[in-house]
Amino acid sequence: MFTLDHTAERITLIAADCAELTATNATQFRRSILELIEGGHSRIVIDLHQVTEVDSSGIGALVSLLKRIGMRGEMILCGMSEKVAQLFRLTRMDQIFPIQPDSAAALRALAV
Questions:
Q1: At 70, which CATH number?
Q2: Over the stretch 38-77, which tens digit does the pLDDT of each residue have?
Q3: Do the domain assignments include residue 58?
């Protein structure tokens, strides 16, 4: 469902390895990342470059993760396709989530 990479700055990069973040897999995705957060990973980049479809369950899973990190850390989304980015703009989630164009930019944003 996703791959992990850790940087020297203690940032966890999660690359979603699925074309969809929808009702079919959003709960599993959320649970897996919640385990990381509960395990102490508090600076997270979620790379969505392979994701072409997100529904309300997918957005709900991401909101849940952002709430769980809360003031203990940071979470940035990156690599959104135009279709996914448009959905985030339409639902105004682009006002809630920090979004970067790609993982390199997201890692730089968290490294400061």
A1: 3.30.750.24
A2: 988 999 999 999 999 999 999 999 999 999 998 889 999 9
A3: yes
